[in-house]
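SUBJECT: protein chain
CONTENTS: sequence, structure tokens:
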Amino acid sequence: MSDSKIDQATAAKLADKEMYRWMVGFGTPCALVAFFTSLTFAFDQFWMIGPAIFVLIGTIFALVYLTLTTDLNETGDGFYAESH
């Protein structure tokens, strides 16, 4: 195999790893916020919005963390602008 095919395979594996990291790290908290919000409306109990707000704040921190620690900046595939 040529080096370019190996690099493409490595980049694809990295992209898949990053996708699953985002799905777990950001998707799960978003699903929890939706779940707690739906419980609030389903049971007409306003106090149930508390866990949704708490998880929402955690979701914001998860988004910042995932954005700052992304591995896609290391690939050099031209997807991101070379600014640093």
User: Anything to note?
Assistant: DSSP finds two helices and no strands in the chain. The two ends are 31 Å apart (CA to CA).
